[in-house]
Amino acid sequence: MKRFLCIACSLALLPATLWGLGVRALSATDDAAQTADLPAVQLPAQEENLLGEFLREEAAPAEQTVPSPAPAATEQTASPAPAAAASPEVNDEYLSPLVTLRADPYLYKYEGRYYFTGSYPEYDRIELTSADSVNGIAAAVPKTIWKMDGATMSKYVWAPEIHYVMGQWVIYFAYSQTSLWDIKACALRCKGDDPMHDEWEYMGMIKAAEGDNFFNNSGMTLDMTVFYHEALGKWYAIWAQKPSSSNLYIAEMETPFAFASKSILLSQPDYDWEKVRENVNEGPAVLQHAGKIFVSFSAAATGFEYCMGLLELDACDDPMEIGNWTKYKDPVFKTDESLKIYGPGHNCFVEGDNGEQLCILHFRDYKDITGDSLLDYNRHAHVMKITYDKNGVPQFHLGQDELYNAQFQDHGKS
Q1: Which residue out of 75, 104, 127, 305 is catalytically annotated?
Q2: Which of 69, 227, 305, 409 could form a disulfide linkage to 276, CB 3.0–4.6 angstroms apart?
Q3: pTM
Q4: Residue ranges per domain, the chain?
Q5: Known catalytic residue: 305?
């Protein structure tokens, strides 16, 4: 199919290299493109103990009523409470870690205010934190906005993300349904305009499009994120689903809680680095920049082998045409033992205090894990400043001077 770029996208892409059609695999370090086929085939704790580790400030964040924002074209993320009190002032230096004991961090920014959430260590609730600066999230007091009903449902509440979608504040998350591993993508809706103070209600599982027998019937669904496609004027969802391996899928949205199209396979584990101990693509996050739409994702099992990959799409192309996507053949960020970065992943993107692009991600500060890595809660949220190469491709890098500048203690470790 011939691809047409709109004028705005064409202008945005002038400084960049224009690549050919089809699914392409690129090196994260090389500019040269190499061809690779991406299949487009449909695949038939106790609370008190944990809280004792959280050293929080006593002052609650200032109240603010949030007016209805316009659709955001860039996906963003928020963060929970830190291990030590932090200065909320705007600063070039971000705290590391920003928030302790929060995997899957998500920080969202609207009109200068930040909203943060992430996986609570006991996987039984959703908390929300707000501040007027990134570092301010560290000192803010989290508010529990929803807690699972243990009498009717099972265990896991995973990876919440807050978004403003089609005029509504929504939190997407994964939640066990009838049994422990019957995990499905679900949503909360805020009944008002103020996410911190208005009531949230449980909307249940995301509804598949008519005729889509795959979405709700083929393994767990989790890590759902959404983005607005400016050129097409449509909203899309990307999520992980595990019929066998954990793959990424995409669908057009009809409402914040229902799909307008059938699920399409976007990415599956193709390379060795995506298959270490487990075959995994999960945790998608969307970044829109210079006429491109990038989707980062996490790969492999959740120990030190966890790492980040990258997909790319021209911003005027149809994301439902899988041949329009590029998958990079190497991870874009992975474990660096020299910096005590172990298992980095499940990130989000957000504008920083000074207008720079930030990546909020989690990782541990040690390699060896005793027992199930899922129950090792010491994945802390960190901040990474994103730069871009000559082709507008995001570069993921953390230096020694950006790491571990805030006091913290790992849960269960002295």
Answers
A1: 104
A2: 305
A3: 0.82
A4: 7-402
A5: no
